[in-house]
């Protein structure tokens, strides 16, 4: 059997992070990254395998120390250090909150509830018949909702009115 080994030379014109060339281990004579060796078990191949692993490890170290820089023009939006409008609104809303401890506690409790419910849903999903039954229930409810609220014009208008009223109750005004 002929042994095959692919070789990839590592050349880069990128800048090194610490501005120094890394030291080359004493056993590595060239900067080449080599693929996995063949499975032959002779002594010579065992030595080649050790050399290959040393070379591969060295090339990985070298690759970690290299950073690249994009060339060309940067868009004006990326150069600007101005915070987005949504962040400003969130900061203003946070400053208006009187009981920040309670709001933070509610947010943490909500995150824990989402995490717990996702675990429960994944456990239910593993049961043999339940996912198929729940899918059928969802399809049936969607069909019923569409027939009851979306097929006829008066029903659509009533649904739209309910949505607008709920929106107004939550936000205080409708846009």
From TrEMBL:
<dbReference type="Pfam" id="PF14159">
    <property type="entry name" value="CAAD"/>
</dbReference>
<feature type="domain" description="Cyanobacterial aminoacyl-tRNA synthetase CAAD">
    <location>
        <begin position="88"/>
        <end position="172"/>
    </location>
</feature>
<dbReference type="InterPro" id="IPR025564">
    <property type="entry name" value="CAAD_dom"/>
</dbReference>
<protein>
    <recommendedName>
        <fullName>Cyanobacterial aminoacyl-tRNA synthetase CAAD domain-containing protein</fullName>
    </recommendedName>
</protein>
<dbReference type="InterPro" id="IPR033344">
    <property type="entry name" value="CURT1"/>
</dbReference>
<dbReference type="GO" id="GO:0009535">
    <property type="term" value="C:chloroplast thylakoid membrane"/>
</dbReference>
